[in-house]
Amino acid sequence: VAGLPLGRIYNFDEIENYIERISRMYPKVATMVKGGHSFEHRPIHYLRISTTDFRDESKPIVYVQSLLHAREWLSQAATLYAIEKLVVNPEEHNLVSDVDWIIMPVANPDGFVYSTFTARSWRKNRAKGYKIGNVCVGVDLNRNYDVNWGTASSSSPCSETFHGRHAFSEPETIVTKKILHKYKGRVEMFLDIHSFGSLILFGYGNGALPPNAFMTNLVAQQMATAIDAVKLRENPAYTVGNSAMLLYPASGCAADYALANGSPLTFTFELPGYKHNGSMAGFLVDPAFVDQAGYETWEGIKIGARYALQSYRKKK
Ligand code: 0X9
Ligand code: ZN
């Protein structure tokens, strides 16, 4: 298809065109699905990648999403690169034939478009009506899921971590909920890709550990090792750990929801930042790093997917 290598960040329309083109050129393995829509009624599309059209329940599903946070542009490199490696240039046949994939490049379309054209550092969605006169807009989608909702987030619509009116008040978070519900018990691995910090986070945002914490930690360590083996020398090594311990407490996260709803291998990735002075620098993207970010993250994703395949089969 030659959609990739990107060598740069794609905007929303380009990503939409890209996944549409993939589904048209590879109809036997890739299907574009509309999971729902955003507050401003943009479609939220994902690609279903499967050699058996998701009908074979003996296969685990690996779910990968990016751009839940609008300004974390580099995260798209992980999902777009994965599509390329699964559909256009597959190298590891098993990962395509024995695993079904859900890949959602833009989990927060309104925020991403707003970050592209209006305010680069926008994080939340673009929900209005929370404050009279729309003084403050947007809900932090990664605080809007129903697990521990409201316990480590803000009730102020002006805050960057505003959790919304109630859990699942936002159409964007309902999309994830519907997908995980539809494929309950099959989504063995759930990856929520963010930036920045070179971290692989696991467990709940309140510090609680996942069901098999020992194995989860081991898988995360192995993913980090695989990424570090091919990372740029000037970038820091990945750090692995519980989200609350390594970063800060958070509630109502996508990862919390996935963990609580049957995805044992749930990880939040924080891709590397852009080294530069100034507080926003970490979200900026060096175009020369986009392909590398996709490539190195894929090295980690593969480790996780192989493990997900084994662990899912053992349960069957
Ligand atoms: O705060 C967040 O939502 C994430 N970090 S970011 O800098 N991308 O905003 C981390 C959320 C991790 N949450 C859980 N693992 N529960
Ligand atoms: Zn984020």
From TrEMBL:
Gene Ontology terms for molecular function: metallocarboxypeptidase activity; zinc ion binding
Record keywords, A-Z: Carboxypeptidase, Disulfide bond, Hydrolase, Metal-binding, Metalloprotease, Protease, Signal, Zinc
Active site: E270 (proton donor/acceptor)
UniProt GO BP: proteolysis
Recorded superkingdom: Eukaryota
This protein's GO CC annotations: extracellular space
Cofactors demanded by this protein: Zn(2+)
Record has Transit peptide as a keyword: no
Family of this protein: Belongs to the peptidase M14 family.
Protein name per its UniProtKB record: (diamondback moth) hypothetical protein
